[in-house]
Every structure is written in structure tokens, then in C-alpha cells.
User: Fold this.
Amino acid sequence: MTEFVSNVFFRMWYWYISKIDKKAEVIFMNYGYSKDNHEISLEEPDKINKYPVQLYDFVANSIDLKGKDLLEVGCGRGGGLSYINRYLKPKTATGIDLNNKAISFCQKNYKDITFMQGNAQLLKFENFSFDVVINVESSHRYAQIDKFLEEVHRVLRPGGHLIFTDFRLKHEIEKLDNQFVKAKLKVLRNEKITKNVLEALKLSSPKTEDLVRRLTPKIVHGIGKKFAATEGTPTFKKFATNEYEYLFYVLIK
Assistant:
């Protein structure tokens, strides 16, 4: 399967999950984070999603969010932004996503957060609207990452931060770094967390495979497992061989 066809399949899968997940079992859509199988302190309802939660906890704790106006671009089904809002206490929390079904789900289930349908490459906010923009495992689907970063720069206040984490093929990392420079966003912190994501994928694979079997028809189980990067799938192997690198940045305007 070519990279283009694979990306089309994955984009369709995001919409498909919003259609089939009637019991709200899938509220996170990231690969997760684990370090030596250490578990952070969570309330009981959040423990079922501990690995995806731990990715949000790791990246969002990179700066103090208390009292800040926060925007998540690519919020998906809202689990990550809900975690940040409840545990890290920003002043305001706003989430946007291109998927209108995901936004409808968020508006129904998270009443204390503002959610709206929107395009990451054309943010419908005034200049200087936010102190922090967070973008978790979403940007690899953007056709024009430069436009996204320009929009981030525009809506951030002076001294505002972009918290960014996502994966890239190895040869794409230099291009991403240059795009940050072009957007006039200064890198404060930059880490490869591939091994931590891979550890989370290994630990979560049995639960994820069970979810795929229960929620989807047998004919698409293979696609579902590949999408979720369960152990043994081609996506998982790309992380295991470092063909994919999982990156984390904290940037400042």
C-alpha cells in the first residue's frame, strides 16, 4: 500500500470510528506513552485509557497551563483536552477538529469545554487569542503544515507556546524543523520519544485488538489493527525499526 493510499485509509478510519463507537469507548486516538511501565496517578474512570492519557500528561506538563487560554487543534473525540482541563486547570479550553461527528460527540459529552468544527490550516480565531496551542498526533494528516504553523503563530499571544507531538518518517524531520523556523517559532525543547510510544503500543496491544474485534466487522480487522499500530502490524514495525520517529517539541512565539 502506497503512503498516499495509506493516508486516505487512515483519514477515513477517523470518521468511521465516530460512526461506530456507540458506547464512547474510543475517546483517545493517539498511540500512547509509557516509560518503564510507570503509571501516573489517575482517577478510576481515566485508568482504562492510561497510555493515551500518559501521552497528554507528558506533553502538557511541559509548561504550566494554569490560568492560560488553551486551544487544542485536532482534538478528536475530546479525551485528551478533557484530561488537561480536569487535571491541569487552564483558564479556558477550546478544541477544534475537522471531523464534525467527533465535534458533535465532544459537545454532547464535555460541557465545560468549547468545541467547534474547524480546519487546522484556517483557524477561525482572532489574532492573539491564546496563550497555548497543543497539537497531538494530528499534523501528519495536514496537507499544508506551513499554513497550520502560520495560523498557530497568528493566534498565539506574544510569548505563547505551541506544544507539538507527532510522528514523521526519518527523512521528514529536517523539513519539519525548517518549517518551525519559517513560522518564526523558536524550539525550547525537542525530544524523540519513539521508544516510549513503542512501549505503550506493546503494553496496550491486547486491549486494542479486543476493541477492534468488538467494534468492527471481521473484514476490516486488519485495517483497524494497522491504524492502531498494534504489535506485529506494519505501522508498529516502522516504529520498532525507527523508520518512524515520534517527536515532541515545545516552541515559543
Summary: The radius of gyration is 17 Å.
